[in-house]
Every structure is written in structure tokens, then in C-alpha cells.
Amino acid sequence: MDIRPNHTIYINNINDKVKKEELKRSLYALFSQFGQIVEIVAMKTMKMRGQAFVVFKELAAATNALRQLQGFPFYNKPMRIQYAKTDSEVIAKVKGTYGDKEKKKKDKKKAQEPTANLTKKPAAGSAAPVHSPAVQVPDNPPNYILFLSNLPEETNEMMLSMLFNQFPGFKEVRLVPGKHDIAFVEFESDTQAGVAKDALQGFRITATCAMKITYAKK
User: Fold this and answer.
1) Which of 126, 116, 120, 128 is nearest to 39 (CA)?
2) pLDDT tens by residue, 65-95
3) pLDDT exceeds cutoff 80 at 96
4) Of 81-85, 114-118, 152-156, which range is least confident?
5) Helices (H), the chain
6) Residue 18 in contact with residue 75, Cβ under 8 Å?
7) pLDDT, position 62
8) Which letter does DSSP use for residue 191 in this model?
């Protein structure tokens, strides 16, 4: 039976040895390149092990992510992705198809916290444009190795590899022992490194840390 496209994608065959918080962060880093994510659901119960749901704000983003990441080697296991059987509760609430009782509750709550929502949403979505013109990151001459800084404490090699290996010419990520906030990423040429640098400048791995990317010193 074919499941009709919706905002929520269902992923299984995930490596179940990964801790829940790390899993959610890695999924966010991998999937947020396709569009704004409303919610990621990953549970470690027996029934839900190795599975997760990613809810996108836009339907097109869910479709793109499903196509591009089908079979992606996530923690060394190919991901199996399909649309969720029903739209996520979050999206159902937004569309108003969730049930009036819940909707009234939500509207009441919404009225009480308009500022919270306003401050939260643009931060993630408009990270790159805000950075580029205002804060020019001082740079070195073009190089095939990129230097990353301002990385969050929980950054690991897997997360960065997932972000950068979508770009042609990606070779490897090198973390610096004892320094969690910096890393190096190597490409085959400085042109290919430049493409990745421009695309991911200011990318937020977490809500508070916007990644700074420069060419490494030669």
C-alpha cells in the first residue's frame, strides 16, 4: 500500500546503540539542510528502537529529504525512509485537523506566548543570511582544507561528516583532541572546499552555535 506524501517522514534501520540525544542532534544536522524541522521524535523503548520521525514544516522538504537520504549510511547502517502513515500531531494541529478541543487549548496557549515563538523560529531558519552581510568572517587565501570554529560541545566526527559529505570532493573531517569547538575538513580542491564553505557558513548545529568556516592557514 502506498502512503500518501505528508510532512512527516518515518526512518527505520537506525543503529540503536546511539544515545537518544545524540541521535536527535545528528538527525537534525543531517535533515535540516532540506528545510525547517518542526520536531524530531526518537524513542528508546523496545517497540521504537532503531526508528525515528522527522516532521518538516514544508511538504517539499520532506519529499526531498526522503529522496536524497534513502539508504544513506547513518552510523554505518543504511537508513530506510518512508512517509509516516499519518501526518504528525504537530502538523495536524497546525492544519486544524487534530480536534477542536486540542485546538482551543493550543490557541489559548499561543495567545499567552506569542513572543516565545517569534524569537525561536527565525533564529534557526535565517541563520545564514543574517551572518553573511553583517559579520564577515576574516578569511585566509583559498585552501582545500577548511577550518571550523564555534562548534557546540557535543559535535562529533559523524555529525560533521554528514554535513560535509553532501558536497563533491569531500575527503575527511579531523577533530582536534582536547578542543571540542574546532575542526578541520579536507576536500580534494580549494574550489570544492569553497562551495561547502559558502553553503554551510553560519549553519547552526544547535540553536545557539552558528558554525564559523574559514580556509585553513597554509
Assistant:
1) 120
2) 999 889 888 888 899 999 988 766 666 656 6
3) no
4) 114-118
5) 20-31, 59-69, 89-95, 100-112, 114-125, 127-134, 157-164, 190-200
6) yes
7) 92
8) H
What's the CA gap between 100 and 80, in Å, rounded? 35
Number of other residues whose CB lies within 10 A of the CB of residue 127: 18
Angle, CA 6 vertex, CA 3 and CA 10 arms, to 5°: 70
Residue 203, all three cell numbers:
549553519
Instruction: Kindly report whether the global pTM for this prediction surpasses the value 0.85.
Output: no
pLDDT, residue 134, reads 41
User: How far apart are the C-alpha atoms of 159 and 79, rounded to whole Å?
Assistant: 15
- What is the phi-psi region of residue 32: left when phi exceeds 0, alpha when psi lies from -120 to 50, beta otherwise? alpha
Residue type, 14: I
**Cell (9 digits) for 7:** 510532512
pLDDT given at position 30: 87
**Is residue 202 predicted with pLDDT exceeding 90?**
no
Nearest to 218 by CA among 201, 181, 198, 193: 193
Nearest of 67, 68, 105 to residue 89 by alpha carbon? 105
Q: Is 152 left (phi over 0), alpha (psi -120 to 50) or beta?
A: beta
Q: Which three cell numbers stand for residue 58?
A: 514544508
Determine the length of the chain: 218
